[in-house]
Each structure stands twice: as C-alpha cells, then as structure tokens.
Design goal:
The protein is an alpha+beta fold and 131 residues long. It has one domain (3-117). It is built from 3 helices and 6 strands. The protein has a 6-stranded mixed beta sheet, covered by helices on one side. It is globular. The N and C termini lie far apart (33 Å).
C-alpha cells in the first residue's frame, strides 16, 4: 500500500517522522510500533491512501485533505502495556468504531477493514467537531 502524505505534510516520510531515535523515552514503544505498522502496510496490496500525522496519531483518508479522515491510529497505554487503538469514522448514531491490539499485523488488518467500512465524507472530524 502506498501511503501518500497529504499536501502540506510532505517534508518527512512517515518512517522518518516516527524514527524511535527522535522521540523521548517517555513515549515508550509508540515510535517503533508505528514504524512496524507502516512497514506492514507498505507490504500489503491495496490502493494508495493519503495519510497525515497529528502529534503521535496517524490518520488515513481517501482525499488529499486533513478534514476527511477515515481511520485514526493512536498508541495507548493500558495497564502499563501499549496497544494500537484503531478508530474508523462512521455515521450517526455511533460516529466511530474502535479496535485495540498489540500486534502490528492485526493493526494493519484493522486499518484495512476500517478503510473499507468507514463512511467517506460523513465522519465527524475530531479536530473540528468536539461535541
């Protein structure tokens, strides 16, 4: 899968952005986990997808526009373990469907599933619609 940076965020590759050597230790395994996910997604046969980052979050979209994300990936810590939290945009009444895993291969499957099942253009944008 080709992961194309949206316009305005094309300075670094995703692997450069999540380079574990560039992140403070208090982020735990997040940078390495994101790099493993990105490498796994690159190896999957799939149409190209636009991506962008927001701090430590990785967002996927079919448009070259940060307002229309379909899948959001974030690393969360639960009971001192880190997990991928994959959120897919949905229509009302749920707004989002979320899955958790600590395995990058399962996380990549959840990203692909989220892209297939998300509602393009109908999602709430977490950055602009905080209700």
């Amino acid at each position: 899968m080709e992961l194309k940076s949206i316009t305005g965020q094309s300075g670094k590759s995703l692997l450069e952005f999540y380079n574990p050597k560039k992140w403070p230790e208090n982020w735990g395994e997040m940078p390495e986990m994101m790099c493993n996910l990105i490498k796994t997604l690159h190896a999957i046969e799939h149409d190209p997808v636009w991506v962008f980052t927001s701090h430590a979050e990785l967002l996927f979209t079919y448009k070259d526009d940060f307002k229309y994300w379909q899948v959001l990936v974030k690393i969360v810590t639960i009971d001192e373990r880190q997990f991928y939290k994959i959120t897919a945009a949905q229509e009302d009444p749920w707004h989002h469907l979320t899955g958790f895993t600590d395995n990058h291969k399962v996380a990549s499957d959840l990203v692909i599933s989220g892209l297939k099942n998300s509602v393009i253009g109908k999602n709430r944008n977490i950055f602009f619609d905080a209700n």
